[in-house]
Design a protein that fits this description.
237 residues; alpha/beta; two-stranded antiparallel ribbon; 10 strands; 6 helices; 8-stranded mixed beta sheet
Length: 237
């Protein structure tokens, strides 16, 4: 069976709830490998909910569908406050990246309570803003930023990562709608240890199987490189 599109590979999948310090309940899903404990954990942060972003935005959904089986990773997805998906609606209201600090904290508390290993924040678009703003408040091995627009992140918040020991991996599409590789190199220059990956032919929404595979490969290259190359076929036996 070719691994593409909506293919769902074997994993333990559990509907979960996250509880924020300001009293909200957020809905989500945890996917983990079937045969053994995960080697690392992806805490995913979805694109802008007012533009249709949610926990099922396709790159995050495909990460949860494939990477527990292909790369031994746990994948936590959740709807930030006020966001709706087929899983349900998280309580509260969108706050433009402000009160969403509580949402990130709730996710990291869940990871800690479950004993999930080596957490990485994986943000896409608006989710990259949350990772940059609040990731330093939590014990993470690194952050992976997909299509960062840098609309809500200040220069000071970016520069603060220069003193952090954790990895910073930035995927910038060649034809991004908001931030393209040359400008991204300038904006992320204060983080000397950041790895900036320009993706030829890439676009902000990473549409198509070729772009999906590229993004998932770069995530795994950062988090569990021993799992590469990712297979494109799955033996169902």
């Amino acid at each position: 069976m070719e691994i593409r599109g909506p293919v769902l590979l074997p994993a333990h999948r559990e509907d979960v709830e996250l509880h924020t310090l300001d009293g909200l309940t957020l809905v989500g899903e945890l996917a983990t490998p079937i045969e053994h404990a995960p080697v690392a954990t992806l805490v995913t942060l979805h694109p802008l909910p007012t533009a249709g972003g949610f926990m099922d935005s396709h790159i995050l959904r495909k990460a949860a569908a494939r990477l527990p089986a292909l790369a031994d990773l746990a994948v936590l997805r959740f709807n930030t406050r006020g966001t709706t998906s087929p899983r349900g609606t998280s309580e509260g209201a969108f706050d433009g990246g402000g009160a969403e600090a509580f949402d990130v904290a709730a996710a990291m508390e869940f990871v800690q309570d479950r004993g999930l290993p080596h957490p990485w924040l994986v943000g896409w678009s608006f989710g990259t803003e949350l990772a940059l703003k609040y990731g330093r408040d939590h014990p993470v091995d690194g952050i992976v930023l997909l299509s960062p627009p840098l609309h809500r992140t200040t220069e000071t918040e970016i520069a603060a990562w220069a003193g952090e020991p954790c990895a910073v991996v930035v995927l910038v599409p060649e034809f991004d709608d908001y931030l393209r590789p040359d400008e991204a190199r300038r904006r992320f220059a204060p983080i000397e240890h950041a790895t900036l990956i320009p993706v030829e032919g890439g676009r902000h929404l990473w549409v198509g199987e070729t772009q999906t595979r590229r993004v998932l490969t770069e995530i795994v290259a950062a988090v569990n490189p021993d799992a590469l190359p990712l297979p494109t076929e799955w033996n169902q036996d």
